[in-house]
Amino acid sequence: MGGEPRTFTGGVRKWKWKRMHEKRAKEEGKSLLDQEKRLYEARLRSQIRAVFGYWNRAQPDEPEPALQPFSNDNSKFGRNVMRFRSSA
Fold this sequence. Notes:
The protein is mainly α. The protein has a domain at 9-63. It contains two helices and no strands.
């Protein structure tokens, strides 16, 4: 019946062992929470990209119509009418 104190692996005493494992568990929980945050943010980003991708595909890229100068036909009636040039 030896009189020496009981130690854990590596000669670590009971309370130091307990504090080490509490710290390790706390760090592990924190890393899991950080990983879950990163996954959540990545999912949100992909959903936002999907929404904007849908709107970009839904609306075709059409150039804005170019304005034509005043025509002589409209000026003889006293109107300042500008017509849009048709793209067809």
